[in-house]
Specification:
heterodimer; A: mainly alpha; two-stranded antiparallel sheet; two-stranded antiparallel ribbon; B: about 500 residues
Chain lengths: ~650, ~500
């Protein structure tokens, strides 16, 4: 199976081509859905087979590179369509194909009756194709192909309902914004690649990373490389300052939000940093930047999440916030903890989005949680699975989110500082609070919707995926039980990934100076805090709803600030977007191009015109005048000859 | 050396077609169109023979045909191809039949004259790319202007006369300087050769020994002419007018092939003939190229006319090519060559598509559109595909060129600064902005303009024109080696001609 890993890339491509070319003629949703999901299902099985084969191999034989054909071979550059099987790529492949498959199946139900059904499935398949390129690539350029490819699919899927309005503008505005903001990040990624090539003379992972261990390269070069790559990551993984596209990306159909904008694509930046851990570990100051940006993003996104009323928007900010945690993990050198959170987050966040989709479906496209309430009665399976996911993301033991989030918090303290931990915990408390605000307002309490709405449970094709993801959200954490509970075996997940990060770990030189007692104490604090937040949310939103309104009124300024997301979009418009457009239109085009450059050209032509027009007057056609000029000329010449003797 | 007549046949084929047209009654539209098409298709087939007979492993000129033309002055009829010119010849013979098919219904009057000029143009273009004698080159270079002038001036839009004259004057201005430089160079070279000649293979050996001060002037005289053709900022203002006013076929050829003559000229003449001057001017030309990349993109962004938008995007794309050329690394020059082909394909496709929709609605104003995805799905798909190619999405052709150019310029010893690449790479962002914004306004949203209802999707003929272009867009994107291999040895040789290892480091340092 390991040798067949390229099929996990090609099968989704095949699905894309079949549905993309023939989909409009097939028309039968079952056939289209089966093809679309089937190729992903088979890919998952192949990845699973490869995983078990790899597990059986000794550690030093686990990496395998399957080369299909040479892509760019020019000068010193030599990169191929080559796919790499190793511990990290397998984890990611399992997440992408596994969660991807579940979401594909769900989409059969969710997209039922949509006239673009075939288009939707072909785009989803294309996305998986690009994503698999991203995570299986054995070189930076192929990773970049996947990187931009997922961006394209994100663009196509956000704007899937291209004739619809979205908030103040349209879905196509949201799509365009996502693509362009991502391109800004890609600009950084490109520069990172160029500098890597200049420094190491290669863009193949193995070569670059092994040279990073042996070459003596200045820290500032590593700093630039890491910074450029990280700029790329902030775009794709929605971190400050490039996170602004993700909330708008909710304009896409909900399964897209679950698959692309929660579970997989947005974690690509985290994956990339983990993959390049050696490079980042060689630039400690950039590691610090990564940690701080991650933490700030986690914190600020959580504050915004508290006041939003659109169910998907809350989840979007929650995603940004959780991605921030992952970068915090990267920044403090806890690479495997970050990847662990990528995995558990994929389970519970996909579940939250699919649950939200189920609710939106039941409520006839209504997304305002103020107009929900008491839905548990109508859709029990959705409610229970949503509750499980909410508990998981809040970090309640023994659900998956507890293990991964706590590991990150622990390392932010152990490898970082108390401040990092403290802000991390405060964010975790806010997370628990807004997730349960969401849960209670949606599923519990009084019904706040009109009689025109008839909520109902979703069909099996949608609820079974919810149940699968709920199970994973519960048990997913058990593969990464920390050492203090599991004893001598240590953290299984960590052990699995350890060989990949050993070079980075060696460079970072973190020593385990902290005791198990400290770890346990901090853990208890965060869990107790999360539990308290849940009860607080319950109290406010179920028992005393007037408190929320009163608090909002008392802190009107702060509330408005959060409600308007710190006005970041508006600031970007005023400071960056509008000046560039105005400058281009009024100065570059209308003045520089039309007046100055073209004016010069036309002016030159006109000058010739004027001169010729005046010279033409000499040509009077009067023979006597010509004769006169001729005589004068001869006289002058003679005079000149005589004088020059 | 054994003479090979294949290139001469290739040059003569379209010309023969043009002459044949003269014997057809001008009322017989189909006969005229088919005759034109047949000749251009045969030309394409002949060029394929040349491609398959071409030896990739050699950097020499192949399929050489040479005989003395003006004896006393050692001026030759001398044609041949290397990897660089072969790719451009293929691009020319590939695009010409497609443009003829695309004009099947859009050109309705003076069909005979139109086809005549198109074939004449093809002969001129092929001639430019295969000439190995400066005198011969100059003749083709000028000859090609005339049919283009008429194509814009007769079948163009409202402002066609202004555009045609502007195009003609701009180009003539450069050409005259080049003519002076050609004569000057040949005279100068005759001092060391002992005889006057315009054979470039001989000039290649002598010209680089000319002192730098003289080289600088000769470089500028050639360079200005090519820079206008490219067009390099700030010599680009003829382009938007010419593109917008030209009929679709004219725009496609103009963007697809004619602009490449500028960059081709730089690679064929400026770099190998005047290596010292090339190194001296490299940073200056690169700065203009980078300005062009950003400026072209920004101005493209705010255009209200689709065709003008695509025209300005050419300024931006060709900026990449010029940067690649003057970075003078294997990666960047190879990237520049493949980018010339890419631009011909993607911009060609964009112009064809604008033509397709214009033919139906008779407007190119972006504001007149909106929501046509529903009405014309295949057109929407095609426009997306061509835009993505132009934006440089990895997996499609545009990426290969841009990536190699940027990568190569980043490590360039001649430029020796990151900033060129940093600024140029920002063009990648702006390209996404202007194309996606245009796409959004034209294709997405709701249909607001009532006159768009009933818009017909692309017909079989129009799809037939797009498909081959799309195949190559994907082909170059996934497996560029097919094409990179062709030019590999040639570009290596050109770089070697400029940066011969003995004195390179010294030259670069002396310039600073």
């Amino acid at each position: 199976m390991r040798e067949l890993i390229y099929l996990t890339v090609l099968l989704p491509l095949l699905g894309f081509l079949i549905n993309g070319i023939f989909g409009s003629r097939i028309k039968n949703e079952k056939v289209i859905g089966t093809i679309g999901s089937g190729v992903i299902g088979i890919s998952f099985l192949i990845a699973l087979g490869a995983f078990f084969e790899t597990l059986a191999l000794p550690v030093d034989q686990r990496q395998l590179i399957v080369t299909l054909f040479s892509w760019l071979n020019v000068g010193g550059l030599d990169v191929s369509f080559a796919y790499q099987v190793d511990q990290l790529s397998l984890v990611m492949a399992l997440i992408v194909t596994g969660v991807g498959f579940v979401i594909h199946v769900y989409s059969i139900g969710y997209m039922h009756g949509d006239k673009g059904f075939w288009r939707f499935f072909s785009y989803l398949n294309l996305f998986i194709f690009a994503m698999m390129n991203l995570i299986l690539a054995d070189n930076f350029v192929l990773l970049f192909l996947g990187w931009e490819g997922v961006g394209l699919c994100s663009y196509l899927l956000i704007g899937f309902w291209y004739d619809r309005k979205f908030e103040k503008s349209t879905t196509s505005d949201a799509a365009k914004k996502a693509f362009i903001v991502n391109r800004i990040g890609d600009f950084g990624f490109l520069l990172g690649m160029f500098l890597i090539f200049l420094t190491f003379g290669s863009l193949n992972f193995n070569e670059v990373f092994s040279k990073a261990n042996t070459f003596s390269v200045s820290t500032s070069i590593y700093g630039f490389i890491s910074l450029f790559l990280f700029i790329g990551a902030t775009g794709k993984s929605a971190q400050i300052p490039l996170y602004v596209w993700l909330p708008d990306a909710m304009a896409g159909p909900t399964p897209v939000s679950a698959l692309i904008h929660a579970a997989t694509m947005v974690t690509a930046g985290v994956y990339m940093v983990a993959r390049c851990s050696v490079l980042f570990a060689s630039a400690p100051q950039i590691m610090m930047v990564v940690a701080i940006i991650g933490l700030l993003t986690a914190f600020f996104a959580a504050t915004i999440g508290i006041v939003q009323n659109d169910i998907k928007k809350v989840l979007a900010y929650s995603t940004i916030s959780q991605l921030g945690y992952m970068f915090l993990a990267m920044g403090v050198g806890a690479f495997s903890a970050g990847i662990f959170h990528v995995m558990t987050h994929a389970f519970f966040k996909a579940l939250l989005f699919l649950g939200a989709g189920s609710v939106i479906h039941a409520m006839h496209e209504e997304q305002d949680i103020q107009k929900y309430g008491g839905l548990k009665k109508y859709m029990p399976q959705t409610a229970v699975t949503f509750l499980i996911a909410a508990l998981a993301i809040s970090g309640i033991p023994p659900l998956s989110g507890f293990f991964s989030k706590d590991e990150i918090l622990w390392y932010s303290f152990a490898n970082g500082s108390f401040i990092l931990w403290l802000v991390g915990v405060i964010t975790a408390l806010m997370t628990a609070f807004y997730m349960f605000r969401l849960y209670f307002l949606t599923f519990e309490g009084k019904e706040r919707f009109g009689h025109d709405k008839h909520p109902h449970e979703s069909p099996k094709v949608m609820t079974i995926p919810l149940i699968i993801l709920a199970i994973l959200s519960v048990i997913g954490g058990f593969i990464g039980i920390p050492e203090i509970f599991s004893g001598e075996h240590g953290n299984q997940f960590h052990n699995w990934l350890a060989p990949l990060f050993k070079d980075a770990d060696r460079k970072l030189m973190h020593f385990g100076l902290h005791s198990h007692f400290e770890e346990l104490l901090l853990m208890i604090i965060s869990v107790a805090g999360a539990a308290a937040s849940i009860f607080l949310a319950r109290y406010i939103y179920l028992k005393k709803p007037e408190i929320a309104a009163r608090t909002a009124n008392r802190f009107r300024g702060l509330y408005n600030l959060l409600w308007n997301k710190y006005y970041v979009d508006e600031i970007y418009d005023v400071v960056i977007v509008n000046p560039i457009v105005t400058l281009s239109r009024n100065v570059l085009w209308k003045i520089a191009d039309n007046k100055i450059i073209d004016g010069t050209v036309n002016g030159a032509a006109k000058l010739v015109d004027i001169i010729s027009a005046s010279i033409r007057k000499i040509q009077t056609g009067v023979a006597q005048l010509y004769a006169l000029v001729m005589v004068l000329g001869i006289a002058a010449t003679l005079l000149w000859i005589i004088l020059s003797f | 050396m054994e003479n090979n007549f294949l290139l001469t046949y290739l040059i003569l084929l379209p010309l023969t077609g043009a002459v044949a047209l003269l014997f057809i009654n001008k009322e017989k539209a189909s006969a005229i169109r088919i005759t034109g098409l047949v000749f251009s298709v045969i030309a394409f087939i002949v060029s394929l023979f040349i491609y398959f007979g071409f030896d990739h492993s050699s950097s020499d000129f192949q399929f050489v045909h040479k005989f003395s033309w003006i004896n006393g002055l050692n001026i030759f009829y001398f044609v041949g191809v290397d990897g660089l010119s072969l790719l451009l010849v293929l691009l020319t013979t590939f695009l010409t039949p497609l443009t003829l098919i695309s004009s099947w219904s859009s050109i309705e009057h003076k069909i005979k004259e139109f086809t005549f000029f198109m074939l004449l143009l093809e002969t001129g273009m092929i001639g430019v790319f295969v000439s190995l004698d400066l005198f011969l080159f100059y003749i083709f270079w000028e000859a090609m202007l005339i049919p283009m002038y008429f194509i814009i001036g007769i079948w163009g839009g409202k402002e066609r006369i202004y555009a045609a004259i502007k195009f003609f004057l701009y180009t003539m201005f450069g050409s005259l300087l080049m003519l002076v430089a050609i004569i000057w160079l040949a005279v100068y070279a005759s001092e060391s050769l002992g005889y006057f000649t315009t054979d470039i293979t001989q000039l290649y050996t002598v010209a680089p020994t000319i002192t730098r001060d003289i080289q600088l002037w000769m470089f500028l005289a050639f360079g200005l002419s090519f820079a206008i053709k490219v067009p390099l900022f700030p010599l680009h203002t003829w382009l938007p007018d010419a593109h917008v006013q030209a009929p679709t076929a004219g725009s496609v050829i103009l963007a697809g092939v004619l602009l490449k003559m500028g960059t081709y000229g730089l690679l064929r003449f400026n770099l190998p003939l005047f290596p010292d001057a090339s190194i001296y001017f490299a940073p200056y030309f690169s700065v203009l190229a980078v300005i062009g990349i950003i400026y072209g993109a920004l101005v493209a962004m705010v255009q209200t006319d689709m065709k003008k938008l695509v025209a300005y995007s050419s300024v931006s794309h060709l900026g990449f090519v010029v940067l690649g050329i003057f970075a003078m690394t294997q990666e960047s020059v190879q990237g520049a060559v493949i980018q010339m082909i890419n631009h011909g394909l993607s911009t060609g496709a964009l112009f064809l598509l604008v033509g397709v929709i214009y033919e139906r609605t008779h407007t190119r104003e972006i504001a007149d559109y909106g929501g046509i995805a529903k009405l014309v799905p295949f057109f929407a798909f095609s426009l997306m595909f061509a835009s993505l190619s132009s934006v440089g999405l990895p997996g499609l052709n545009g990426f290969v060129g841009e990536f190699l150019i940027l990568l190569g310029s980043f490590k360039s010893g001649v430029l020796n600064s990151w900033w060129f690449t940093v600024f140029a790479a920002s063009g990648v962002i702006f390209a996404a902005v202007y194309l996606l914004w245009m796409y959004q306004r034209v294709v997405f949203g709701e249909v607001k303009n009532p006159s768009l209802h009933g818009l017909k999707d692309m017909n079989a003929r129009e799809i037939f024109v797009m498909i081959p272009i799309f195949i190559f867009i994907v082909w170059i994107g996934i497996y560029p080696s097919t094409f990179l291999k062709v030019s590999e040895k040639t570009t290596a040789k050109i770089i070697h001609q400029v940066l011969s290892p003995e004195n390179t480091a010294e030259k670069i340092i002396n310039n600073r």
